[in-house]
Each structure stands twice: as C-alpha cells, then as structure tokens.
Amino acid sequence: MKFSRRSLITLVVLGVIAASLYYFFSTRGVTYIWHWEKIPEMLFYHGSKSPEDPTPRLHMGILMIGFMLTLKISIFSIFFAIIIGTIVGIARLSDEPVTRALSISYVELIRNTPLLVQIYIIYFFVGSLLRLSAFTAGTAALSIFAGAYVGEIVRAGIQSIHRGQMEAARSLGMSYAKAMRYVILPQAFKRIIPPLAGQFISLIKDSSLVSVIALADLMFQGQQAVARTYYAFEIYFTVAFLYLVMTASLSMATQYIERRLAISD
Amino acid sequence: MIRAVKVCKTFKTTDRREVKALVNFSTHIKKGEVVVIIGPSGSGKSTFLRCLNRLEEIDSGEIIIDGVRITDKKVDINKIREDIGMVFQLFNLFPHKTVLENVTLAQMIVRKRKKKEAVDTARDLLHKVGILEKENVYPSQLSGGQQQRVAIARALAMHPKIMMFDEATSALDPEMIGEVLDVMKKLAREGMTMVVVTHEMGFAREVSDRVIFMDAGQIVEEGTAEHFFTNPAHERTKVFLSQIL
Ligand SMILES: Nc1ncnc2c1ncn2[C@@H]1O[C@H](COP(=O)(O)OP(=O)(O)O)[C@@H](O)[C@H]1O
Ligand SMILES: [Mg+2]
Questions:
Q1: Is A175 among the domain residues?
Q2: Cα R_g (chain A), whole angstroms
Q3: pLDDT tens digits along B121-173
Q4: Of A22 and A254, the one with more pLDDT
Q5: What CATH number is attached to the domain comprising A148?
Q6: Nearest listed ligand to the Cα of residue B41
Q7: B42 lines ligand 1 (CB under 6 A)
Q8: DSSP states of A171-209
C-alpha cells in the first residue's frame, strides 16, 4: 500500500531526528534524562480519578483527552467545510452576478487573512455576541476557513466535468439542481478527492491553532503537560506522532475510497 | 408537432464577433415525420436542435411543440424536455453510473417512476437496442456504438414524443455506424417523430420523409431524399452533396 510506505518513511525520519538529537546531546556532555516512561500514563492510566469515584478503572490521560478533542473538532469541521465548500463552489458558477460576487468575496476574504486572526474574531467577537462555546467557535472558525478552500476545489471540480454531462441531464428533463446532485457533483467529487484530502490534512494540523482559545485540544493538552512536567521532547514527539496518526489515517481512508470509486473508470 | 417560425439565433464569440447561427428559420414537422437535416459544418444544424429543447434560447421568432409555445418564458422547460429525447454526437452517458442506472436515473427522479417500473422499462429498451447483456457494466467498458445505443435507450426511457439526433454516428468507427443506424431506422418505422442531423444519406433515403439542406442558418432546399439524389436545384446543395456522397 502506498500509504504505509509514505508513513513508514515519516516514522523513520522522526526516528532519525530523535536519534541524532540524542547523539548530539550525549556527545556534547549534555545529559538529558529521557522520561519516555511517563508518556503511557499521559495516554491511558488505570486508577481512580477522584475520591467520589474510588473504584479504579481505565481513564484517558491528558494527551489522549486532547487527541479526542482534536479528532472531534476535525471531523465536525470537515463535515461543515464540505457543506460550505459545495455551496460556495456552486454559487461561484452561478449565472446570478450577486451570488457569484458573494462567493468570490467570501473566498478572497478568508484566504487572504490569517486563520489565527479569524479564530480570535469568531471567538471573542461573534462568539461572545452569540454566546458560543469555545468548541462551537473553534469549529465554526475552522469550517469557515477550510470551506473557502474547499469551495475553490469544488468549483474546479465542477468545471472539469464536460459540459455535455449537464446538457444530457437537462435534456432528460432534470432541473439544474437535480442535474447537479445526481450527475455533476458525484463525478466532480470523485475527481477532487486528492486535493480535498490534502485540504483536510491541513485542517487537522491547523486545528492546533484553536488551542489559543483555551480549547483542550491535543496541542493545548501537550502544552499543559509540558508546563507540568518539563518533558518537552517526549511530549511534543508524542503530540506530533498523534497528529500523524490522524493525518495518515485520513490519507489511507481517501486512498481506499479512491480505489473503490475507480471501478467505473 | 413542431413549428418553428422565423427563429433567429445569434452567438457572441469570445472575441465579441456576432455569429448568426439561425436566420429567420421556419419549418413545420408533422407528427410521425422523420426529417433529416444536412448541411456544412457551422450551418446551424445543432443550434436548431438545441433551440427545440431550449438548450439554447432564441433571440426572436417562436417555436411551438405539441401546441405549447415553448419559447415563452413562463413555460416549465423541464416538462417540455421530458417529451423530447436528445442523442448527442459524443453520447454523454453518465460515466459514474452503470448502463442500467443510466437508463433508470431520469425515469425515477424526473418521471417519478418506482424503481421496479424503471428497471423493467430500461431492460425492455436495452433489449430493443440489443445491449441487455451489458446492463451492469460502466460506459467506459463499452465500444462507441454500444454507448450510443445505450444513450438512445436512455432517451427513449422517458417515452418522448419526439427524438432528436445530433450527428449520432459521426464519432463512431465505421464498423459501428450500422448498428446505431439500425436502431434509428427501427424507431423511424415505428412512427416516432424524428429530427435527425446526419450525413448518412443511405439512412435518409431509407426512412426519412423529408431532407432539409441548411447553409448559413437558413434552409436552402428541402425535399425527399430521392430529390437530393436525382436533381438538387441549388448550386450550394450540389457542391455539398458531392463532398459527402
Ligand atoms: N456556444 C456558442 N458560442 C459561439 N458560437 C457558437 C456557439 N454554438 C455555435 N456557435 C456558432 O454558430 C454557428 C452554428 O453552429 P452549429 O449549430 O453548431 O453548426 P452545425 O451543427 O451545423 O455544425 C457556427 O458558426 C458556430 O461556430
Ligand atoms: Mg453540429
């Protein structure tokens, strides 16, 4: 499989970096005492959480809690980004000049300002007006951000479908909406899977920025763990590895879907 | 069945020139009539067909189909299109759907037929065009001739009152032209109203009631296929026929 080879290379590279750092420090007389043994309990630990619930059981550790939140916010954001992007991509190709202009403005506004600024604006301004939770604000910011890029990808995808497809669909009596839904979009989406996957991998990584609004995502939890223990190397390596698990799974999933859809080629 | 009155259609090209594709084009096609349209490339044949189901909007004139002035803005064009089948030069099958799904899709989402009914109709038609055994394959696995026969079945599945063919055999390898023409001839003999853009004069002679020769967006000459073979009147017609025969 293509995925495992690429991810394997990534893992090897990470390993080489870790080894050279180790070599660098040990040969220069800097003795860094590794504390890898502290990492597992940051993922899962067995014990009791609080005096009220004394029966010991398996709990998620600090990093795993962050991992789950990053996973959740990424899944939600990908879902909404697809919806926003599809609407924006179709609007961009509308005959209606106003619709088209709105779509273009949205895309340009979002793509030409930093995500970090967007997160702050949505959280501190829109969020406090509408009383949004940090999670909702973070998801909204990421969805709106990725939606602009997905919109451009969807537009390109629709334009890449031969116009005879739309004509055939319309000549059978399908409305524009039905032709889009049953004929154009399924073909367009199939064609844009690779750029979409790239976009969503970026989204997973960009989601680390929501740590600035005190969302307990993987990045935030990693920072907390470092602040508490000072095992910066071990923790950030683990954080990087956990992001890699998510992005690699996504790219594996897309390759599976691509293969499944290739049967009609 | 179809009446076109003084239809004009002008295109603006990308370099902002105006191209007159149809100039005061008038004709009347009766129910059950098979009309073949011939003419040099760029003479407006496709444009005429595309105006009949409003893939193109006309500039002036009117088109009346089955008593409905389809060029009125208020007309529900999707309803009109259900009754006019169109077959394209490049087939335009839906590549993400199997042969059977290509033929059932519009039946279900436009005609609102139940799946079972749509599948039965599709199988009947695929049998009729001689390709039933391929119902579960994707278009990319078919030859051009097979794809075009599926496209015909797809259009027929809507039970249209009129069938239009725009150079349905021009993109085919010579050995596949016959199988598509056979299907079209069968349809003509069953009494379908047909408007056929083609240069297959054999087809015109065998099944057409009338041949229209177009040039520069106008009808130059019309008559039976026999007329065109034996004594075409206009110089332009003679020149054109000498090129295609
Ligand atoms: N969408 C279009 N935009 C600009 N010009 C067009 C368009 N469609 C057709 N034309 C022009 O209109 C004329 C008639 O075209 P068409 O009806 O396709 O001719 P035919 O089918 O007889 O070859 C040609 O000069 C062609 O270039
Ligand atoms: Mg043409």
A1: yes
A2: 23
A3: 999 999 999 999 999 999 999 999 999 999 999 999 999 999 999 999 999 99
A4: A254
A5: 1.10.3720.10
A6: 1
A7: yes
A8: HTT--HHHHIIIIIHHHHHHHTHHHHHHHHHHHHHHGGG
Any domain includes A171: yes
Using CB atoms, which residue from B95, B109, B158 is nearest to A264? B95
Record: contact B82-A265, CB cut-off 8 A: no
Q: Considering only CA atoms, which of B200, B114, B198, B126 is closest in space to residue B156? A: B126
Spell out the residues 6+ positions from residue A261 whose beta carbon is closer than 8 angstroms to its own: A190, A193, B96
* pLDDT tens-place string over residues B87-124: 999 999 999 999 999 999 999 999 999 999 999 999 99
Token pair of B162 as six digits: 């009129």
The 3-state secondary structure of B111-168 reads CCCCHHHHHHHHHHHHHHCCCHHHCCCCHHHCCHHHHHHHHHHHHHCCCCCEEEEECC
Decide if B231 contacts B56 (C-beta within 8 A). no
What is the value of pTM for the model shown? Answer: 0.90
**Separation of alpha carbons B233 and B243, rounded Å:** 16
| Domain encompassing residue A109 | 68-264
Question: Does the Cβ of B216 fall within 6 Å of ligand 1?
Answer: no
DSSP one-letter code for A38: G
Taking the CA of B167 as reference, the closest ligand is 2
For residue A207, give Cα distances in angstroms to A124, A162, A223, B3, B234: 17, 36, 15, 62, 74
The structural domain count of chain A equals 1
CA distances from A31 to A23, A28, A39, B231 (A): 10, 8, 20, 105
Asked if the Cβ–Cβ distance from B81 to A170 is below 8 Å, we say yes
The verdict on residue A60 lying in a domain is: no
Ligand 1 atom with least separation from CA of B9: 12
Q: What integer is the mean pLDDT of B34-63?
A: 95
Does residue A31 fall inside a structural domain?
A: no
| Burial zone of A252 (CB within 10 Å; 0-12 exposed, 13-18 middle, 19+ buried) | middle
How far, in Å, is the centroid of ligand 2 from the Cα of B43? 8
* pLDDT tens for each residue of A121-173: 999 999 889 999 999 999 999 999 999 999 999 999 999 999 999 999 999 99
